[in-house]
Amino acid sequence: MNSISIIIPVLNEAENIEALLTYLDLHSSSELLLDILVVDGGSTDGSQKIVSELSKTHPKIVGIKSPKGRAKQMNLGASQSKGSVLYFLHADSIPPKNFDQYILDAVHNGSKAGCFKMKFDSNHWWLQLAGWFTQFNWKSCRGGDQSLFVEKTVFDDLGGFNEEFVIYEDNDLIYKLYKHYKFEVLPYWLTTSSRRYFSNGIWSLQLHFWMIHLKKLFGATPKELEAYYLKHIK
Question: How many other CB atoms are found less than 10 A from the CB of residue 12?
Fold first, then answer.
C-alpha cells in the first residue's frame, strides 16, 4: 500500500507554518500520511521553534535543519522521508481537503507524478485568470506553488531537484517528469498566497516571471537566472 511523505521547504515562514501544519493534520488520513518533514533553511523569525513545539504533540511532524536553498532543502527532506510517494508543498499553499487520498488514488491509477489546479487568495482578475489556466495539463502552466506529488522511485531515478538552481528548481524537475512519465493535474483546487504579487506589483512580477522562463528557454544558466531574480524580485 502506498503512503505519503509531505516535504515543506521553509525560510522565515512563522506567519504561515503553524496554520498549515494544523490544517494538514486535520485534513489527512493517519493511515495514508506517514510524516511531514519541515526543512528549514536558516529561519530567523521563530519558524524552527514553532515546528519544534508542534512536533511534541504531533509525532508525524519532523523539523530538519538544512543549508539554504529550496532544491537542497527538498532533496534533504526526500532523503529522510518514509513514504512511497513524496508530496512537495510550499508553506503558503493550502491543498484541498482529502489531498492525500486524491494523490494516492491517482498513483494507484497509473500517474507517476502530478499536482493540483491552483487559485490565488485574491480576487484580482489577472490572478484569477492565471489560476484558471492551471487546470489544463500543459507544461507551460506548471509551477511549484501548485505543489507536486511524485513516486519516490521516480524522484530518485531523475536525481531529485537540481541543486544548481536556486530558483526554477520546481520547473526543471516538472519538465523532466513531463518528458518521461505520466503527469496528472488533479481536478481539485489548491489555494496559494498572492503575497509576492502584491509586494512586488502584480504586473511587474508577472513580467519578471515571463522573462525568467524566456531566459531559461534561450539557454540561461542557473546562476544567470538567480542573478536576474535577485535583481528584480523581492
Answer: 16
pLDDT 10s digits, 122-157: 999 999 999 999 999 999 999 999 999 999 999 999
**Separation of alpha carbons 142 and 149, rounded Å:** 13
Give dist(CA 31, CA 26) in Å, integer: 13
- Considering the domain architecture, whether residues 217 and 101 belong to the same structural domain is answered as no
CB-based burial, 85-118: b 16+ in 10 Å, e otherwise: bbbbbbbbbbbeeebbebbbebbeeebbbbbbbb
- CA geometry: angle at 64 spanning 189 and 194, to 5°? 30
Domain carrying residue 175: 4-193
CATH number, domain of 182, equals 3.90.550.10
Element (H, E) at 209: helix 202-217
Q: Using the Cα atoms of residue 25, residue 27, residue 29 and residue 32 in order, give the sign of their dihedral.
A: negative
pLDDT digits (tens, 9 = 90+) for 29-61: 888 999 999 999 999 999 999 999 999 999 999
44 and 115 assigned to the same domain: yes
The domain tally of the chain equals 2
